[in-house]
Structures are given as C-alpha cells and as structure tokens.
What we know:
The protein has about 140 residues and is mostly helical. It has helices at about 15-45, 50-70, 90-100, 105-130, 135-140. α1 (about 15-45) runs antiparallel to α2 (about 50-70) and α1 runs parallel beside α3. It is globular. The termini are far apart.
Amino acid sequence: MQSNTVHPCDERLPAGQLLTLGIQHVLVMYAGAVAVPLIIGSALKLPKDQIAFLISADLFSCGIATLIQTLGLWIFGIRLPVIMGCTFAAVGPMVAIGTNPNLGILDIFGSTIAAGVIGILLAPAVGKLLRFFPPVVIGVVIS
C-alpha cells in the first residue's frame, strides 16, 4: 500500500511562511557576511574604505556561492534553496594570521584559497562518512 503523504521536510509551505522564512534566512546570512569582514578589518586596523571593499567582496562571493549551491554547476552544488554566508569559525585564525608581523592580509587570502581547494578534494571522502553521523548527532553538534 502506497501512501501519498508528504514528509514534513518536503512539504510546500504557504506563501506567507515562505516569505517570512526567506527574509529570516537572508538577514542571518547578511549579518554574518557583514560582521566577519568588520571584525577582521578592525583587528587588522584597515582603513574604512578597505573594510567596505572586504564587505562588498564577501557579499559578492556569498552570492556566487549561493548560485552554485542552489542551481548546481557540474558536480558542485546541492541544488537546494539555500543562502551561503560567512562563518565565524574562521575569524580567530584569520585574525591570528593577519596580525602576525611576518604575515598579512594576502596570507589570509592565500590560506582561504588553499583551504577551499583542500575542502573540495576531501569532500568525496567526507561524503562517504556521512552515514556515521545521523541527523541527531549533527543537530547536537550544530546546536
């Protein structure tokens, strides 16, 4: 016997709820996308115009990442309606790199690019490990 019920994760919400959730999602992404460059720029004592440029570059990068994730590009992207934003997890290491007298903002950029390449290369292996991390485990870690 087949059931025609839709799982709650797959159900289509009414337009009002979709709009509210969409606005909430954008505001959460936007706050992180502005706060992270502000923190890093302030820690590195950058001029205001360069901090504004960091914020613009971050928002532009978040937009590109959102399009790749949402629409998919070749083997990249989850093809789900998500908004990609900045993470605060990288702020500490970035400030440490940027305030090191032997390093600077270019080294932050280089390490970010290197981390991205390493992440792409390791993604298939991590994907195979997902079966060991059920939603209840991931939810607790994220919380």
